[in-house]
Amino acid sequence: MKWLMVSCLVFLVAACQAPITNSLLNHFTEHVINNLNNSSTLEAHCKSKDDDLGLRRLAAGTEFNWTFRVNFWSTTLFFCDLRWANGHKAFDVYCPDDQFLAKKCAYNFCRRSARDDGIYAFSEKKNHYVLAHKWDPK
Question: Is pTM beyond 0.85 here?
């Protein structure tokens, strides 16, 4: 009986030490912004295993965003397929990993900017957008 109680306590302490960035209590907001030149339309199809957000057509200068919570198991993953006249790219926009969040997001806000030379992610550390992905040719 003592062993069971100690095991449960160890489990609870370990569970409580999980990073707060992935907490079920936190909301995360993703932004996909069309900053392409020449009034180009950006097509964005974003989804997770459980939620398909549908195909969005973004006019130049507009954005698409959504808010969600991480699932109980902290396995939530969102990815997007972005397309425009000169290229396309499929990539993860949210992964419940502290390194991913630190490099690709600002706290609970992840922002992606589609530009002519690629897709940029906002870096809170650098306080500006950095190139994250080059476009694949069409």
Answer: no
Whole-angstrom Cα distance, residue 110 to residue 118?
A: 16
Q: What is the SS3 assignment for 17-65? A: CCCHHHCCCCEEEEEEEECCCCCCCEEEEEECCCCEEEEEEECCCCEEE
pLDDT tens per residue across span 17-63: 334 445 555 677 889 999 999 889 999 999 988 889 999 999 999 99
Distances (CA, A) of 116 to 59, 91, 131, 136: 14, 17, 11, 12
Neighbouring residues of 90: CB distance < 8 A, sequence distance ≥ 6: 79, 80, 81, 82
Coil, helix or strand for 7? helix
The candidate with the shortest Cα–Cα distance to 42, out of 131, 122, 128, 116, is: 116
